[in-house]
Design brief:
This protein is mainly alpha-helical and 205 residues long. It has nine helices and no strands. Keywords: Membrane, Transmembrane, Transmembrane helix.
Length: 205
């Protein structure tokens, strides 16, 4: 029951917060939503420690080695290459575009975009990979089922802000993040890889 409660907190909580960003136009609204994300992160960490009475290593917070950091950079670059293929080859072939969403992101102050990138790397990797993958594997006994379920929720949670086209983008990135986590079981490395991808996408312009 504790595990189910934690999964409801992690996946249910972030799904509720992953609504349509386009409806938020005020700076105060955007900052408020970011604070809610950090509150969810704190709540889940508290749940692991106080309710489950387990160490944070049980959700992937393990000391990374040089190989983890090196692989994080490689995975980040790999995902960027895959996303480049999707945006510049697949989307044009299907006559799809996300230019409207990208233009709306450009109206957000650069400093806030930077904070969002950091928050996304921390919260999404903790909730979707570190907690969800570990606990779902315990419940199902299957690495594949755990990875597939968490990755599916990750991809679908991006629909509210980006539209259904983005399932392909988030699904591809999420699949690689998930495989990387299942391989290394190191949340710090996954967070770094995630930060590299989002920073290159949203802060390099």
């Amino acid at each position: 029951m504790r595990t189910l409660g934690g999964l409801l907190l992690a996946l249910g909580g972030i799904s509720l917060l992953s609504g349509n960003w386009n409806e938020l136009t005020g700076l105060g609204q955007l900052i408020g939503k970011e604070l809610l994300y950090w509150g969810l992160v704190a709540a889940l960490l508290g749940y692991v420690i106080k309710v489950e009475r387990r160490p944070l290593a049980s959700v992937g917070f393990r000391r990374p080695g040089w190989k983890d950091w090196s692989l994080a950079f490689f995975v980040g670059l790999l995902i960027l290459a895959c996303l480049g293929l999707i945006y510049y080859v697949v989307f044009p072939a299907l006559n799809w575009s996300e230019n409207q969403h990208l233009a709306q992101l450009a109206t957000i102050p650069y400093w806030l975009n930077g904070l969002i990138v950091v928050r996304a790397a921390v919260s999404e990797e903790l909730l979707f990979r570190g907690y969800a993958v570990e606990r779902l594997q315990e419940l199902t006994g299957s690495r594949f089922v755990a990875g597939a379920l968490s990755c599916s929720v990750f991809a679908l949670d991006h629909v509210g802000s980006w539209g259904w086209h983005h399932v392909l983008v988030a699904g591809a990135a999420g699949a690689i993040f998930t495989v990387f986590y299942l391989w290394r079981r190191n949340l710090w490395a996954c967070m770094l890889a995630h930060f590299i991808v989002d920073a290159a996408a949203f802060l390099s312009g």
